[in-house]
Write a structure and sequence with these properties.
The complex is a heterodimer of chains A (403) and B (230). Chain A has 13 helices and 14 strands. Chain A is α+β, with helices and mostly antiparallel strands and 403 residues long. In chain A, strands 5-6-11-8-10-9 form a 6-stranded mixed beta barrel. A two-stranded antiparallel ribbon of chain A has the order 2-3. Chain A is elongated and about 105 Å long. The two termini of chain A are 33 Å apart. The model of chain A has no long low-confidence stretch (mean pLDDT 85). Chain B is an alpha/beta fold. Chain B has 7 helices and 10 strands. In chain B, strand 4 and strand 5 form a beta hairpin. The longest helix of chain B is centred in the C-terminal third of the chain and has 18 residues. Chain B starts with a strand and ends with a strand. Classes of the chains: A alpha+beta (403), B alpha/beta (230). At the A-B interface, helix 1, helix 10, helix 11 and helix 13 of A face helix 2 and helix 3 of B.
């Protein structure tokens, strides 16, 4: 076969017009670069969201009391306040549940020396750090027996620690929460923004038994937090629902008076929205790739017109239609593949630049590189075919006479 | 049929459609050309001699009639087969040289071999040999924009010769050259014909060119008007 010979002819023709070849490929370079950079932004956002959910604990389930319904009048979620410690203990026994923590929360004034701070007080069980994947910066978390005894001990969020102690060692110090003295036993690691719910770090964690004394509502829980064994959160959810329906004596078909919410659902929804963002960005970038392809077609058409005489000469010495088709098609494909390779480099560099300058996290995936490259190659074939075919269909006599 | 005939044309016509009207470029031409001669096809512009040359050169098919090249009826060939005939058996020489711009003499001469299955190294040897035949040794790597008109036409002749064709077909080969250079080109034709017995067909309206021909065919209004033989 003389494909190699024809390719050599194409390469020679391209190198004879270096500037024009580069400008033609520029459309593809920008297109491929844009696709890779845009997809890397989308993927980066997705990874960041997933990361945040993992840090909150993906196996996390929260049981809240449902809406109270009396005479057809529904209160809001949590209005019934009917979760008990006994409920929590029963849920903790479920097979798929690894850790369980009852939850009582309130918000109040905290004092240490002459400083005071208004913050959220979370009453929790001893398993709370495991459920939330949350390590301690200094000190230790309270044990189960301290919870049972209702000891007045507190673990501070890093922001509260900063505000009350300003760098001094808080361990063993006594703070007053709503005038009740609590001994500080630990400080949580900084976790950052809670995605619209304020900061995770602006809170004080105490045994829920102590928190119940602060709120004055004994035996009542705001919610129960549970983490399932890995990959068994759906199973845990069903188990919990069954236990709760039996314990709360809910007739089959009647509305539940509690609600189990599932982090994976929220994580999936968030993942879905970043996926849509990625598709949108890739779509916009693909338009520029398409425009780049049209640029190639345009230049190839001009090039065919410019080289009618050359085509005539080639035909007169025995070039077949197929040879001419192949020559011009190869030129278009070489241009777009060359553009594709440079575009990948431009895409990688610009996504790194975006990451550094805008501070967004970007993630370059091999998939987007391969996709962009394959797509640019097909753009070359698709948009190169028409001009190449036009060239190959020229009448040699007309072409030789063309001025 | 005479086996010495390289070309045998039988009652060939060629009709072009220009819009609604039909233009009869050839109205029924019959002639045969023997191997090894120089034949001049002569006639004023519009006589149909270019159309005849296109058909002889396998760039075009006749509308009716038969054309046999070396006993083979090429008038029935499709485009691809015609391209193969042009590649292997016919060497073209044009008035305006028709060389590739900004390309070396060697690459221009190699051009027909790009489209045949000759290996690259052998192609180069063949091209060098053809260039030597037209007296261009040492000029192989000169580009077409660096050489004179006479040299360009020599490159064109080398390109026509490179694939060892059965005949050379020259369309007004001296039309763009001065008298002296034109005579040099005619001498190359004469030499090729005498030394290698290559059939040469000249299409021209210039009586001075036709002096080297052994036979002159005059065309007028798409018909053979008369013939002269030496």
């Amino acid at each position: 076969m003389n494909i190699i010979k024809i390719s050599r002819v194409s390469l020679k023709a391209l190198s004879r017009n270096k500037m024009r070849s580069f400008l033609t490929a520029l459309g593809i370079i920008i297109g491929v670069g844009a696709v890779i950079a845009m997809v890397s932004i989308g993927q980066g956002a997705k990874a960041a969201v997933e990361d945040r959910f993992t840090s909150m604990g993906t196996n996390l389930l929260t049981i809240r009391s449902g809406s109270r319904s009396r005479g057809g009048l529904h209160g809001g979620a949590g209005s019934s306040q009917n979760l008990t410690e006994a409920d929590a203990e029963a849920i903790g026994e479920a097979d798929a549940v690894e850790y369980m923590s009852p939850q009582v929360s309130t918000r109040t004034q905290v004092k240490y020396g002459n400083k005071n701070w208004n913050t959220s007080i979370q009453g929790v069980g001893a398993d709370y750090p495991m459920i939330r994947n949350w390590d301690l910066d200094i000190g230790s978390f309270f044990e189960a027996n301290m919870v049972r005894a209702g000891q007045k001990v507190a673990v501070l969020g890093s922001e509260v620690n900063q505000n009350l102690f300003e760098g001094a060692d808080p361990i063993g110090q006594v703070i007053r929460i709503n005038r009740v003295p609590f001994r500080v036993v630990g400080v949580l690691k900084t976790k950052g923004e809670a995605g619209g719910w304020g900061s995770h770090d602006d809170q004080i964690v105490v045994p829920y038994t102590s928190a119940q004394r602060l709120t004055g509502r004994r035996a009542r829980l705001n919610s129960i937090e549970v983490s399932s064994f890995t990959g068994r959160s759906q199973e845990a959810k069903m188990e919990i629902e069954e236990i709760m329906r039996i314990r709360h004596k809910i007739a089959p078909g009647a509305d539940d008076d509690f609600r189990v919410s599932d982090m994976t659902e929220i994580a999936e929804a968030a993942g879905e929205s970043t996926k849509i963002l990625t598709i949108l960005l890739a779509g916009i970038a693909s338009v520029s790739l398409l425009v780049g392809g049209i640029g190639i077609m345009n230049i190839m058409l001009v090039s065919v017109t410019e080289r009618i005489r050359e085509i005539g000469i080639r035909m007169s010495v025995g070039a077949k239609e197929r040879d001419i088709l192949l020559q011009f098609l190869t030129e278009a494909i070489v241009l777009s593949i060359f553009g594709g390779i440079l575009g990948i480099l431009v895409g990688i560099v610009s996504s790194k630049l975006i990451a550094n300058l805008a501070g967004w996290s970007t993630l370059i995936s091999m998939g987007s590189i391969i996709l962009a490259f394959v797509f640019s190659g097909s753009v070359g074939v698709f948009f190169g075919f028409y001009p190449a075919r036009k060239a190959s269909k020229l009448d040699p006599i007309e072409a030789l006479r063309y001025e | 049929m005479d086996n010495n005939n390289i070309i045998q044309i039988e009652n060939v016509t060629r009709v072009y459609k220009v819009g609604e009207t039909e233009v009869h470029a050839l109205r029924g031409i019959s002639c045969s050309i023997k191997k090894g001669g120089i034949v001049a096809i002569m006639g004023p512009s519009g006589s149909g001699k270019s159309t005849l040359m296109n058909i002889i050169g396998c760039l075009d098919n006749p509308s009716s009639g038969r054309y046999l090249l070396e006993g083979e009826e090429v008038s029935t060939f499709d485009k691809n087969k015609l391209a193969l005939v042009r590649n292997k058996r016919i060497g073209f020489i044009f008035q305006s040289f028709n060389l590739l711009a900004r390309t070396t003499a060697l690459e221009n001469t190699e051009l027909p071999l790009v489209y045949s299955d000759v290996p690259r190294k052998k192609a180069k040897d063949m091209a060098m040999k053809a260039l030597a035949q037209v007296g261009l040794e040492g000029r192989e790597l000169h580009k077409t924009n660096q050489i004179s008109g006479g040299e360009m036409q020599r490159v064109a002749i080398a390109r026509a010769l490179v694939n060892n064709p059965s005949m050379l077909l020259a369309d007004e080969p001296t039309g763009n050259l001065d008298t002296k250079t034109g005579i040099e080109i005619m001498d190359i034709f004469k030499k090729l014909n005498q030394e290698q017995n290559i059939t040469i067909i000249l299409v021209t309206h210039d009586p001075e060119v036709s002096v080297i021909a052994h036979r002159r065919i005059y065309i007028r209004d798409g018909l053979i008007e008369r013939e002269e033989r030496e």
